[in-house]
Amino acid sequence: xxxxxxxxxxxxxxxxxxxxxxxxxxxxxxxxxxxxxxxxxxxxxxxxxxxxxxxxxxxxxxxxxxxxxxxxxxxxxxxxxxxxxxxxxxxxxxxxxxxxxxxxxxxxxxxxxxxxxxxxxxxxxxxxxx
Length: 130
Fold this sequence. Notes:
Elements: E1 12-14, E2 24-34, E3 41-51, E4 55-57, H1 59-67, H2 76-91, E5 95-105, E6 108-117
Antiparallel strand pairs: 1-4, 2-3, 3-5, 5-6
């Protein structure tokens, strides 16, 4: 049974169309963690794009996982890559990209983008429609 409090494990389910490359986009506008130096809250919008292989990630478990960072100190670069690594370990996607767009801190905006490609996977070429 899934909990209603912060948690780190992801729930997954079988990809309903594993024979096709398609993209799933998850936007998380309320990510928060703490600055590891000052303890002040950092806020970000996370955008996760992935091409599933055998498994997809269940959205409520993503919400609960993201919630688990609310009281953790983390540098922007480290937390972005940790989230990517944890998702890769859970679902082994063909492709995954995370974009973490942090709100201003000290007059500076930070955006961290990290991605993963399964060995041998190649994206389909873009199609230009008239």
